[in-house]
Amino acid sequence: SVLVVGSVNADLTVRTARIPRPGETVLGGDAVTSPGGKGANQAVAAARAGATVRLIGAVGQDAFRDVALRGLHAAGVDLSGLRTLEAPTGLALITVSASGENAITVASGANAHVTPAHLPPDLSGVTHLLLQQELPPEVTLHAARQARAAGVPVLLNAAPTRPLPGELLEQVTHLIVNEHELTALHPEGGTLERQAASILPRGPQAVTVTLGAQGSLTVTPRGTHRLAAHPVQATDTTGAGDTFCGVLAARLAAGDDLPGALRAAGIAGALACTRPGAQDAMPTWAEVDEVLQA
Ligand code: ADP
């Protein structure tokens, strides 16, 4: 099974003519609430793709809790390790302008109060650990160390961009970043491929760079694996990266080899771009498999 240790948020989105400047008030459309947080998003993507998924994280007792958990419940994610803390549920305040720009404020709330004590005492039954960077760094590091000590591979999506401690990178089996996040890791210069390869000596056995409509690039000590994107009419790319990471973990847990898992993840990421929203847009395994079989 896949264990996700990560963030759970409610997203509150308002469309406006433009992003307000400091001190300015802008009238917008109706507020839309939807479930989010990279941890929850990736857990839902993995579960939709057919994996047995358990999420460790935290929410509050407020009204946003139900919004935050809606997709996780619907996807059948095991929430027995989810804590309810005396802090507000994590909330992302998202303003989207008519020109498609966005401005996002994240109130971490309960996510910031997850501690290593909330991690499960043993990882029996867990085949893959999937991490992001929206929880306190000591929790992510502790989970990674625990997994490696138990022989469980660690997938880290180093998003959002924030300092990635060397001691965490050392524990990572497979690092997944987009182009922007790769740059923040201060790789040696040169082509994307060389930049990704320069991360390998720092710990991971594989580094995948997701490239939006250009697909993805994965380097391992054995060489480079380039994958073209599955061509789609993209209307909303929100959650594409989260879908990619969740499905990658799910397919590795299902026994796929790395190229096979990457192929499924890329197709799933592409399909997620054809529908609005994050979790609501994530494909089922049947949808991904239909493309694979075509
Ligand atoms: P992020 O959301 O983290 O920036 P990307 O935009 O790189 O991540 O998307 C993750 C993956 O989803 C890509 O590697 C690709 O396989 C797929 N994807 C994203 N955008 C598109 C697109 N416009 N067309 C086809 N596939 C896409």
Automatic annotation (TrEMBL):
Cellular localisation: Cytoplasm
EC assignment: 2.7.1.15
Cofactor comment text: Requires a divalent cation, most likely magnesium in vivo, as an electrophilic catalyst to aid phosphoryl group transfer. It is the chelate of the metal and the nucleotide that is the actual substrate.
Binding, substrate: N9, A10, D11, G37, K38, G39, A40, N41, E134, D242
Domain Carbohydrate kinase PfkB per the UniProt entry, residue ranges: 1-284
Subunit description: Homodimer.
Family: Belongs to the carbohydrate kinase PfkB family. Ribokinase subfamily.
Protein name (record): Ribokinase
Source species taxonomy: Bacteria, Thermotogati, Deinococcota, Deinococci, Deinococcales
